[in-house]
Inverse folding.
């Protein structure tokens, strides 16, 4: 537990340092555009919380080295592989000029580096027709890069409200740590603990006050780590069902897939264009019912109160994934149930048919 404690304290202090020094760097680090369809805060806020998260992960890797842990080398290789996705995500936070396509490219590059450094390749999916192709290494590598890039991008997509992405990643990392401990995989367990401590220290400053944001650097980095630990868990432990990480990350993944379908098929627009009708945005607009001005302090409270709704949705997939991590059939059933629940909730809100007990009025 020393990894968890040290990374938590490091992240807590480093995030505080980012907040306290905001006056010196907010000209480039803060999100000053408050008018976009995905902007739900009332003041400029530093969006480089990912720096604190990354630094705390580095400290965790150093602890593994200095304590002589057998998995220290693998942890460092994972951190090295993450560099392209973190650096260019952070570059977007600071310059606001790195396009989504470039960020996805460098995330894919990180996934490719993980393949080269850690042999992190998906070899089984339990999907008929796909597994037969997995024997072809180029196909398996391409599928792995696509999956890792997709999960990292999905975490970035749900990073819209105070505590939303951080808590979802925290819950999913806890699940990975638990399964890692169950199968006796010390690398997965320690790496997950390091990430848990790093996220938790940031979370306490991000929720509920919203004093700092993850930014693209933090969101892409955590999404990459989540995806890679899932791939490595499957690679190193054949008893873990391939459906485990899919159900575990069902909320961000299905949010992304459904958003692409909604934009491309239903609206005929580019999937890369931002809009204001993601599920978390609809919860904010239609379930958080009270009057507030654009610069009212209550807007921050309204922002923060949105996240617990989505935490509960995320738990609908995390809990069964943890309970039945070995059982592909049960995991598949819960995955279908989750998708149905997501669609039911989405269309209920869109059509103003949300049950009254879900609406928060103040």
């Amino acid at each position: 537990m020393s990894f968890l404690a040290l990374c938590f304290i490091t992240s807590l202090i480093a995030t505080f340092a980012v907040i306290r020094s905001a006056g010196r760097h907010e000209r480039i680090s803060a999100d000053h555009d408050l008018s976009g369809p995905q902007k739900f805060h009332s003041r400029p806020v530093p969006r480089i919380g990912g720096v604190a998260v990354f630094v705390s992960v580095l400290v965790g890797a150093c602890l593994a080295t200095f304590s002589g842990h057998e998995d220290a080398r693998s942890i460092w290789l994972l951190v090295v592989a993450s560099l392209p996705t973190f650096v260019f995500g952070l570059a977007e936070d600071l310059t606001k000029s790195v396009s989504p396509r470039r960020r996805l490219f460098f995330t894919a590059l990180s996934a490719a580096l993980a393949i080269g450094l850690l042999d992190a390749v998906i070899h089984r999916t339990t999907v008929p027709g796909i597994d037969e192709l997995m024997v072809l290494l180029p196909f398996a590598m391409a599928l792995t890069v696509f999956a890792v890039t997709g999960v990292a991008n999905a975490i970035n997509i749900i990073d819209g409200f105070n505590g939303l992405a951080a808590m979802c990643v925290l819950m999913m990392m806890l699940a990975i740590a638990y399964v890692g401990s169950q199968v006796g995989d010390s690398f997965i367990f320690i790496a997950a603990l390091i990430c848990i401590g790093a996220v938790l220290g940031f979370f306490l400053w991000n929720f509920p006050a919203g004093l700092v944001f993850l930014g693209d650097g933090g969101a892409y980095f955590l999404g990459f780590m989540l995806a890679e630990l899932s791939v490595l868990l499957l690679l190193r432990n054949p008893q873990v069902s391939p459906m485990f990480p899919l159900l575990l990350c069902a909320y961000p993944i299905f949010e992304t897939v459904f958003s692409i379908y909604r934009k491309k098929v239903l609206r005929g627009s580019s999937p890369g264009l931002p809009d204001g009708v993601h599920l978390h945005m609809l919860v904010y607009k239609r379930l958080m019912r009270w009057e507030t001005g654009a610069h009212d302090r209550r807007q921050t409270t309204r922002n923060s109160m949105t996240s617990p709704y989505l935490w509960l949705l995320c738990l609908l997939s995390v809990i069964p994934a943890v309970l039945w991590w070995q059982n592909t059939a049960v995991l598949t059933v819960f995955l279908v149930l989750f998708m149905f629940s997501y669609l039911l909730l989405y269309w209920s809100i869109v059509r103003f048919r949300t049950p009254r007990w879900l609406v928060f009025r103040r």
Summary: The chain has a mean pLDDT of 89. The CA atoms of residues 279 and 346 lie 6 Å apart. The radius of gyration is 20 Å. The beta strands are 288-289, 360-361.
